[in-house]
């Protein structure tokens, strides 16, 4: 029997056991009756410090995607509604896997994976492991989020669900939108957004005649204006169908599942930036109603920041499995995940580039993110006629993943309010309008084999673990930028009109408005990263109360990048090869019945990404100039963890843990000056430290027994709660930087994180009721420069209510669900010093869903 199986079978009695010896009247043989409860808890069986979310946890909280669901896990925070940070460590320390294969990022400028693209309806469970073990990659900072797809069912299932959602700030409220094809309903941008053939043939416009350039200009769709439209309620449809067939000793099965969602949300508020002076913090950009009133210019009723996002998700999964006798299993899974965002944005206010005047910046945006994930895997067991060597387990996998992110037909344009004309005029500046096309593609081939060999050495069960993995990732990213140029002259009357008239065919002419190309050479790059790894470890039960897991992992990382210098256009190749062998060890001591202490130590690394190694300057998602650094060193991390766990009921446990991380050469943001603006870069800081504590409690509440409330019937009441305290510090002293704070917390780290949920379950009717609270403390979102304070994000305090119940309809169960979100009506807010950097109302949301099982 493997060590894990032995532990589950012999040491997971959660309640004090009683062995009752009785002599039977018939035979005189003593009968031993063991009273206790078996808890097949992966968190207890594993040697590492971890948390598990399963289908039951998803049902209790009613979360629709993995990113939101992970906010319930101790020590986890979610940024932007999609990026998960473990123990407050930022994007560069995040690692996400699906069925054991590492997922590539979906942005050329980020290294983390947006987990909002994974619906909980298609995920069987999620493991969050916070201590490093050798079977995971060495680039392991805060922890790993390992999602597992749903398994092939044991019997036939067919489920169909529909749902809708109403938001008090968005639904049936005036939103922003723009014309697009009908295919947007399913998340496809349509041919209208494709790069015109004339530009695809010659993206740089180089060598074009004036007539050819004019034809290329006319080929661009003449769609600019943003319209006011009422937002519809959200819509959701999902289905699952699966079956299992048996033939002799073999069994075969399949599972197919699909999910579709369409949702609108408004972000109406304000956005400001600040600088310092002798008088203190002073505004630079003022996108708010007060700005218009202050300068007594233009109409103040529509001043501020107005954004409407329409998010469309379309996902599918197909799993086919075969059990060839009791010892061999094969599984093939294909997953396609798509999330598209249609955004319309209008910002009206005063800007630092032209202080004292009113400007309106408008933007239309369409983004498609897609992951196509394919994997075949096998699990094989080989028996031995030996008392020492138990059954050998061999697992293998082969994976191909393609990730894409498309930004087709992204448009920006600006109108300035003219005091003399008392009208808004389309800006004639070269940056007054832009039409951009962006694309990113990542292809990854990976594979690996893992061997588990349980042995018995004397009376000691030991698991020997061996494994080898490889991955080969190709990465391409490009961006094309164009703009229309006005001829010399005022053109005032023309510029008063809407863009569709200004840039209409009658005004596009070699002697009139012409098309120019503004693509930076650094907007295009290609890269490749190969990682080859080997690992070995042992997991030994040294005694009835002491267990140790020790191992190490070897990795060879090879990175090759080609991009181009922004100014000169010269090639800028970067090549790097590194080898590391690092250890990990965890000791588990069951010092009392159902009480165990875990102690863990490991060494891991944090490598710079391909983009971070490039000298080329590029513009990130927030419009900031960013330059990589080919001299970046790989950061080394020493990790220390300790946690006490107490299992005192069938589903009851409590834990208290502490952790400490010591960073050598951590990679941090740095700023210098480029022209009149800041240039963001990356440098190795002198050092950084992170320490903290976390506590968790999950308990079933004996309400009926304690209060004698018979009316509660068979309802089982529960409480889940956790709290984390995280203290971090990074030292930027000695860097070539204009950052205000040289010793500060790590970016993205909240000092306090907390979750609580209370409710009940009644299994006869499938009734589930939960009140769920989530708190994330403020965290640094941007670095302050030239004496200005850092920008802090203040996440909303979210209080949600979830209700579910099964109703018998036509002989089958119909699950009815209701969810109310943000009951406290908290808003989203970023601050800089005493000033508001960004603010908008989230609104309360109410969801209603129905799922029928045939």
TrEMBL record:
One of its GO terms (cellular component) is cell outer membrane. SUPFAM superfamilies: Porins (SSF56935). Residues 385-782 form the TonB-dependent receptor-like beta-barrel domain. It holds the Pfam family Plug. Keywords: Cell outer membrane, Membrane, Receptor, Signal, TonB box. InterPro entries: Beta-barrel_TonB, Beta-barrel_TonB_sf, Plug_dom, Plug_dom_sf. It comes from the Bacteria. Belongs to the TonB-dependent receptor family. This is TonB-dependent receptor. The lineage of its organism: Bacteria, Pseudomonadati, Pseudomonadota, Alphaproteobacteria, Kordiimonadales.
